[in-house]
Amino acid sequence: MTRRGKLPRAFFARNTLTVARDLIGARLVHDDGRTVRAGRIVETEAYLGPRDLAAHSSRGRTARTEVMFGPPGHAYIYFIYGVWNCLNVVTAAPGVPHAVLLRAIEPLEGVTDRTSGPGLLCRAMHIDRRLNGIDLAGDVLWLEPAPAGAPPARVGRSPRIGVDYAGEWARRPWRFFDRASACVSRDGGHDSR
């Protein structure tokens, strides 16, 4: 696979909803020193803490959420249900705890397992909490723009998945997905537009 330039820090230092939408079609790459794994991002969710009750940062600044308050363009990786790692991209300005969860990718290189869902994505890409806080402009884990000339993704929108506990915040249409991709999560796959 041909390597493209990495997405610049300015890409992440924008409105979080814009970043979440614009990541559809971008490439996620992980080079663990032995294997390079890559996939095309086909599903994301935006989290706009601290007011957004679905965001981890809604509970304030903690050791777990510290990365979310840092500079944009870093990885926020958390562990849930005692099984799954989940990868988020920190967005907005330093001190503003916003992030975009990467929910699904289409495998491009070095990925053979299922990738439809944030836990499956991390398992297939060999991403875990050891990479929490890593700079996404580095040489281990990074994001690349969609290839020049690639057809634009047909982006759909819906409420986020699995955040019913967040009340009115659960109904915000802050999930973005490529309508044409077979790798998008099936749970809640409707388009609210």
Give your account of this protein's structure.
- The chain is built from 3 helices and 8 strands.
- The relative contact order is 0.23.
- Helix content is 10%, strand content 29%.
- The chain is mostly beta strands and 193 residues long.
- Strand 1 (27-31) and strand 2 (36-48) form a beta hairpin.
- Mean pLDDT is 93; it is low at 188-193.
- It is globular, with a radius of gyration of 15 Å.
- The chain has a single domain (9-178), classed as Methylpurine-DNA glycosylase (MPG) (3-methyladenine DNA Glycosylase, Chain A).
- Strands 1, 2, 3, 4, 5, 6, 7 and 8 form an 8-stranded antiparallel beta sheet that branches.
- The protein has helices at 9-12, 16-22, 118-125, and strands at residues 27-31, 36-48, 75-80, 84-91, 98-109, 141-144, 155-158, 175-178.
H-E order: HHEEEEEHEEE
Portion of residues in helices? Answer: under 10%
- What gap, in angstroms, lies between the N and C termini? 34 Å
CATH fold descriptor: 3-methyladenine DNA Glycosylase, Chain A
Mean pLDDT score: 93
CATH superfamily: Methylpurine-DNA glycosylase (MPG)
